[in-house]
Amino acid sequence: MINSQLINPSSIVVIGASNDLRKAGGKMLHNIIAGGYTGKIYAVNQRESQVQGQNSSSTIEQLPNVDLAILAIPAQFCPSVIDELGKNHKTKAFIVISAGFSELNEVGEKLEQKMIENANKYSASLSGPNSIGIINTHYSGVFTTPIPQLDSITGCDFISSSGATAVFLMEAGMQVGLRFSSIYSVGNGKQICAEDYLEYLDDKFDPINGSKTIIMYLENISKPQKLLKHATSIIAKGGRIAAIKSGATKAGSRAASSHTGAMATSDMATRALFRKAGIVYCSSREELISVASVFSYKRLTGKNIAVITHAGGSAVMLSDALAQGGLHVPLLSGEIAEELLEYLHSGSSVSNPIDFLATGSAEQLGIIIDFCEHKFDCIDAMVVVFGSPGLFDVENVYKVLNVKMDVCKKPIFPVLPSLVNAAKEINYFLSKGHVNFPDEVILGKALCEVYNTGAPSEPSNIENIIDIKKIKSVLNTPTDVEGYLSVEANNTIMDALGIPRAAEIAVDSEYQALQAAQKLCFPLVMKVIGPVHKSDVGGVALDINSNNLVVEQYKAMMEIPEARGVLIQKQHRGIELFVGVSHEHGFGHLLMMGLGGIFVEVLADIKVCLCPCSKEEIVFRLKNLKGYPLLQGIRGKPGVDIDAFAEIILKISHLTEILPEITELDINPLLGTGTDIIAVDMRIRIEK
Amino acid sequence: MINSQLINPSSIVVIGASNDLRKAGGKMLHNIIAGGYTGKIYAVNQRESQVQGQNSSSTIEQLPNVDLAILAIPAQFCPSVIDELGKNHKTKAFIVISAGFSELNEVGEKLEQKMIENANKYSASLSGPNSIGIINTHYSGVFTTPIPQLDSITGCDFISSSGATAVFLMEAGMQVGLRFSSIYSVGNGKQICAEDYLEYLDDKFDPINGSKTIIMYLENISKPQKLLKHATSIIAKGGRIAAIKSGATKAGSRAASSHTGAMATSDMATRALFRKAGIVYCSSREELISVASVFSYKRLTGKNIAVITHAGGSAVMLSDALAQGGLHVPLLSGEIAEELLEYLHSGSSVSNPIDFLATGSAEQLGIIIDFCEHKFDCIDAMVVVFGSPGLFDVENVYKVLNVKMDVCKKPIFPVLPSLVNAAKEINYFLSKGHVNFPDEVILGKALCEVYNTGAPSEPSNIENIIDIKKIKSVLNTPTDVEGYLSVEANNTIMDALGIPRAAEIAVDSEYQALQAAQKLCFPLVMKVIGPVHKSDVGGVALDINSNNLVVEQYKAMMEIPEARGVLIQKQHRGIELFVGVSHEHGFGHLLMMGLGGIFVEVLADIKVCLCPCSKEEIVFRLKNLKGYPLLQGIRGKPGVDIDAFAEIILKISHLTEILPEITELDINPLLGTGTDIIAVDMRIRIEK
Lengths: 688, 688
What we know:
The structure is a homodimer of 688-residue chains.
Chain A: H1 4-7, E1 11-15, H2 24-34, E2 40-44, E3 50-51, E4 54-57, E5 68-71, H3 78-88, E6 93-96, H4 106-121, E7 125-127, E8 133-135, E9 140-142, E10 156-160, H5 163-175, E11 180-185, H6 194-203, E12 213-218, H7 224-236, E13 240-245, H8 250-260, H9 267-277, E14 280-282, H10 285-295, E15 305-309, H11 312-324, H12 335-343, E16 354-355, H13 362-375, E17 381-385, H14 395-407, E18 412-415, H15 423-431, H16 440-452, H17 468-472, H18 487-497, E19 504-507, H19 510-520, E20 524-529, E21 540-544, H20 547-558, E22 565-570, E23 575-584, E24 588-595, H21 598-601, E25 606-610, H22 615-623, H23 628-632, H24 642-658, E26 662-672, E27 677-679, E28 682-686
Parallel strand pairs in A: 1-2, 1-5, 2-4, 5-6, 6-7, 10-11, 10-12, 12-13, 13-14, 15-16, 15-17, 17-18
Antiparallel strand pairs in A: 3-4, 8-9, 8-11, 19-22, 20-21, 20-22, 23-24, 23-26, 24-25, 26-27, 26-28
Helix pairs in contact in A: 3-4, 6-7, 7-9, 10-16, 11-16, 13-14, 14-15, 19-20, 22-24
């Protein structure tokens, strides 16, 4: 729970304050004072009566009432101090920077529980423990440096699972001019987790007078649905979010769990969640900083980039990076291009990249930008690469750039690579409130990441035609011991959803089998009824094309233990497709889709969405399958009816809303042709 | 041609020298003087008698003999100045920094040709034009800044197609402590190209007293075989090379060609060349700097990395990056791990990442490193992440790190992320000759790139059993108009190489067709003889399993224009494979391999080697195919005889040596089973 006393306290006490700035309690107090906190400041130190010029109490008792207490004392004392402050001093917010809690051992975990209980007793916020604290426009409540100068409108809000990572990211970000609005270090985060800070930022979101960018470093996602809800809401209001969720690999999760006891969530689920919410997925501090820097500029609304440069090499590498990431560097030619060329030195090129040579001037840069802004309609954004060989000052160039970046409607991204030769001019440029991208390729990749992360899409509504009651009726039918629904129940669901399935007849005698064969026509598929893992016990036979084979297979299958009968199906042909669902704790249902066969088994060519989803989202994901050309049809071979496939997947998404009890679902294969898609085999597992 | 006068001149004249340091001729002279050049310096300036304290001539005539002339004068004057200097002043080397040559227009191109002719007349080196010049331990012959302090043993030699990119890379590299040994700016490079500088570095390579790392920024590869030869040679002598070849995409090539008139070479050919040579392929300045920084440390000899940190978050992201790139962060446990744990603060983790907490000391770091060096046999290298929250000085930690990096045999890579809080200590660390990796993930990716770039492999020798004479005999057989060999010639080659092919009989009557069918047994494949693109004209029929069909297809195929007969083949089953060859100008033959069908057509799952190659290289490449599990056999389905497949590919590599006239070759498909691989269809095109 986040309350106003945590965010904007009228008084703060540092418990364990010190004159020694090498100690956390000392530096914390120092930062609060130096940060110009305007409320009342108290200090508790057992031995000193004055700490950093503030009157200090030796005991808690001597304190007046105080809104926020920051604890920098050994873990064992924290629970009782919190209790006393809550009981006798109306303290409603705590930041515990001490370590030695659940991240250490079981004793620490119990201390943490006790501490949280005590805070909860007084409805108090508890940030941490094991965190570096909080920086916002009201106070600088961290024991670390640097303290970035905050900008509550153009800066970004930063939520971090790791205090050290927050520090390192601020250090690196400040170098390129990235600005911050607030920093929230989550620490062990058992009472206030990262998602709670996001909720707070959502509630206070103000697209005009507040910051619009949020970046997060997450080691676990304890409340995925909460994350999704508030991220979606913030983005819908015009905000932008980028995040690292580390621990994507086994080695990484081990590292994460030793760090903050984070639970490993599958990277697949995280990515599906981020995609649904519209959060840009990042894997390094540098990537997060670059994406946040892109966010700090005007929004990229199209994929056509003009690369403007006086340094050919950078333009080549940047063009490669943009093209590889799916953005365009469109060729510029024709009358307007010719006209522009006349303003430039002989030897310049305007075909895009627009290279105005090492001798290019500030005035020429201004003209080029104006052409891109007003005359080249096919251009959506500009990147300007301008460094210095060290011959002369480039301040006049950066001045033009600064003005144009303000007045142009199209976004302009600056690459100022001369960290040595143009250090002074870059500082001037940053002082104007800009962020610099020192490496053109890193900018290129970040632009592509941002562009390729779609906006959140609203889930489509459940269609009226679906017979919900009929579907829910399967909950009253028996499942097998592992929780799988019966063939009949599966069929009930498919029929209620309107998903075509292969014609089939269940038989339990040779005579019935032959009758069924006649009715369905060869070729046929025969499957044993009873055993779950049919293939493994020889319970599936394909290409049955004679009465003899029908009888032979029937007999063989009925010999399989647990066999209760045989299912005879019409054998269909087509491209193998699949749809699957798995339930990921906390996240909800993940919808998986793709082509079947080797595409799943060998190539892992699977796309994943978080349910419930929209048809647009499904179509978008299908288009990103490596095997998508097969769905479209290649080399004269027919593809499948992609719209029908997307419709079936959408119905399965709806199904997870109707039957949240589903823990696992597989329709594999569906056989698709240009006209039909037919479900051939399905398994549904539920947990009532 | 690179001569000693270019590399180590005993006298230098700057033509177009100036007192104005904002002019290239002024800055050039300044840099040479400031760089402490010990030979004689002359200046030519039309108006001044003294330039920067040096006596200046107003005309060339007045000059004495001089080894190296640096030209900073308009392009139109360069050819005659070079002629005069070569004729009358024994000048044997020129650096032309002026622009306005082939990169500008046709007039410039002619000037450039003339200038080169003049230099050649006197056997003089000509570096440039349109370059920034040369920096080596003898002189600082560039007009740009910064001039890095050179280290001829631990620094890297840097060859750059782009002067500005060279400047920007030096600026960024110097920030992290990357050292340089020499810089060669190629410019238009028509007389001395990048490959010539590489040859020079190869010739002078000294693994003890010279630099061992070369980095290159290339916009074109004009002499691929020369690049291959010297890169391979340098790496064999213990050197290490990383390079960017920009212009990988269409947009990028357009940018490159407008920049230096670079010819677009396919990225595929470049990658095959780099792989063969053992050059690490990079795509950005930052990547190149990171890889060069990795090169500056001891060599990574195994894939097991210990991640040592006091900051959990960095360790998690780094572990993810290493694992995703194929390196290991092995779990450490057992007695030794327990023993190490006793030296650390409570709450530390040694399971790897080794996290010794925010409170970890320099002494503990030393102990951890010693354990990794001496006791954990499974560890090949260490990464130490150590920043500062700003509470206290970390110099003692960096001192320990500095010592351990020197004494340990296992490489230690430092991540010092606190660019603000530990700026002073990082500078101390860099002053000890180290390079810093500010971002852990960027280091992780660079380590993986380096580790995954194999050493160059010697091509296997041509087997004696191949009947070379027989193969060469096909050159005397007629080809079709497009240069394709006849079916008979193809078969001659396959048989001489000992590549099994499908049994087949060519027929030109119905009667012969039926006889052939009887001999080969159903099912059969029938292919029209005559037309090249058989499939497109309905000239290929599969699954022929009756005499009626044989007759029917025979009649239909003989109706196709240009049909001269029909080829009847036994229809084989198996996994579709393919081998192909294409000839890339200058590079030689590229060998392509993979699975057939959708793997080529949809997934572009193709691996490419530069001929001639070794079997190890082929096997290595096959293992990297996405479809490799299919070759091994999955889910009980048999795979193919991978060794036999590699052997066939190797034979095709040999074939390109025997018949360099081949411009295009396709064996597609080969059908592979667990025991046999049979070539079913092949096309070979030659250019005599």
